Amino acid sequence: LDRPDVGETTVMLRGVPNQYTPKQLLKELLGWGFAGCIDLFYLPIDFRHKTNLAYAFINFTTQEDAVRFCSVASTTTLSFLKRAKRLATAPARVQGFRANFDQFLHH
Questions:
Q1: What is the pLDDT, as a whole number, of residue 81?
Q2: Taking the mean position of all CA atoms in its chain, how far away is CA 10?
Q3: pTM (predicted TM-score)
Q4: Cα–Cα distance, 65 to 62 (Å, whole number)
């Protein structure tokens, strides 16, 4: 389990089943108790194959919420597709809402 360091608020979530849509994944994560804690969510999609790329970037409003998310994600499985899938978290290379927003806007 990789946890964000002081000041880090953006987490990369790996191991997302490819069939999840952004709406499905975000709904599930919010159901884990993170409503109001996420200000940026990005699940890259391979439009040719109509699947996600098995990872997402999530920015939290506080570092404490990012740390709590990493703890929850390490002990919780995604349930929407009725498959137990092991998730992994790590601090994202790009940190913060503004830096991520700018990066995703220009790519």
A1: 65
A2: 8
A3: 0.84
A4: 5
